[in-house]
Each structure stands twice: as C-alpha cells, then as structure tokens.
Amino acid sequence: xxxxxxxxxxxxxxxxxxxxxxxxxxxxxxxxxxxxxxxxxxxxxxxxxxxxxxxxxxxxxxxxxxxxxxxxxxxxxxxxxxxxxxxxxxxxxxxxxxxxxxxxxxxxxxxxxxxxxxxxxxxxxxxxxxxxxxxxx
Length: 137
Ligand code: 5GP
Ligand code: ZN
What we know:
Largest sheet: 5 strands, antiparallel
Structural class: alpha+beta
Oligomer: single chain
Helix content: 25-40%
Number of strands: 5
CATH class: Alpha Beta
Number of helices: 3
CATH superfamily: HIT-like
Radius of gyration: 17 Å
Shape: globular
Bound molecules: guanosine-5'-monophosphate, zinc ion
C-alpha cells in the first residue's frame, strides 16, 4: 500500500525507532506512548485489521508479540504489560494497518482501567445466549 503510514515506516520512507524486525514482522516505538517503551508490532504485509489478516499471519504476528513482551517488561523494569489491538474507528483504530500495542505498565503510572458497563438483571445470560448462538458451527 503506497500511501499507508505503517507501510512507509516498514519501507523506511518515514523514520521510526525500530527495535525489532524479522521476515514477517516489524516492531517500533509508538510516537505518542501511553508509557515510555510502548511498542507497535505490525505485519510487514499490508492488512487493515483483525478481519483482514489471515489466521496464519495473525498467529505469526502474535508469536512476535509473545517473544517481545517479556523482554520489554524485563528491559524497562515494568510491573506489567498490556497487549491491545484496536479494530475500526469505534474501537479507537487510527492507523488502518493492523498492529498490536505492547504497553509497559508501572504500578505508579496513574493510568486507570476502563470504566465498567455492568449487566442489569438477566442481561449476562442474554448476551451469553447470543454469543453461544453466534459461535455455533
Ligand atoms: P491505533 O489507535 O490505530 O490502534 O494506534 C495507532 C498508533 O500509531 C497510535 O498510538 C499513534 O500514537 C501511533 N502513530 C501514529 N503515527 C505514528 C508515526 O508516524 N510514528 C509512530 N512511531 N507512531 C505513530
Ligand atoms: Zn500498510
């Protein structure tokens, strides 16, 4: 994709703070980090999101995430790690080249977890029923 920001980063047409690369994946520092060391891990082949990426390529991407996450934690002396993926604008996706966020967390970083959206009476069963039905093959 010629005009994709992350494709341009992978091709080194736009500079990035690359920290890891292999045949299929590329990892670099997010320019607006939640915490210092916040990484983006991307497949080298352009795909938009979770719906677009073939399962084997997603598995390959997650292999890199699985390899890097504990190294990030140890190298930055983090207390925890968030792994995230935003898909579509409603979920906060801003760059439409699939990517996984690896976010080092610190006990005193002041970030809060998401506000909850609690179930009212009986709602949890209805949602469970809808999803069990959707997962039926
Ligand atoms: P999304 O919201 O799509 O999941 O995340 C996109 C991420 O890309 C954001 O966290 C944003 O800070 C990061 N980002 C946007 N433009 C650039 C850039 O030019 N360079 C780097 N390194 N990160 C970027
Ligand atoms: Zn791309």
